[in-house]
From TrEMBL:
<feature type="domain" description="Cupin type-2">
    <location>
        <begin position="1"/>
        <end position="40"/>
    </location>
</feature>
<dbReference type="InterPro" id="IPR014710">
    <property type="entry name" value="RmlC-like_jellyroll"/>
</dbReference>
<dbReference type="Pfam" id="PF07883">
    <property type="entry name" value="Cupin_2"/>
</dbReference>
<protein>
    <submittedName>
        <fullName>Cupin 2 conserved barrel domain protein</fullName>
    </submittedName>
</protein>
<dbReference type="InterPro" id="IPR013096">
    <property type="entry name" value="Cupin_2"/>
</dbReference>
<dbReference type="InterPro" id="IPR011051">
    <property type="entry name" value="RmlC_Cupin_sf"/>
</dbReference>
Amino acid sequence: MFYVIEGKMQIELDDGLIDLDAGDFIIIPKGTRHRPVCKTLVKCLLIEKCGTLSKDNTGGTYKE
């Protein structure tokens, strides 16, 4: 889940972009390809299940 505290951001999905403003949140279903896009400074809260694999915690080797 991404929760935007301050600023604006987008979430890029395979089928397009979703705009998020302060106070908005989005829950990404398991297995959905996505990436955050921030063109300006943003404060957001990211909540994910413990043990979620990403490029950051696998040394950049994680691939779907």
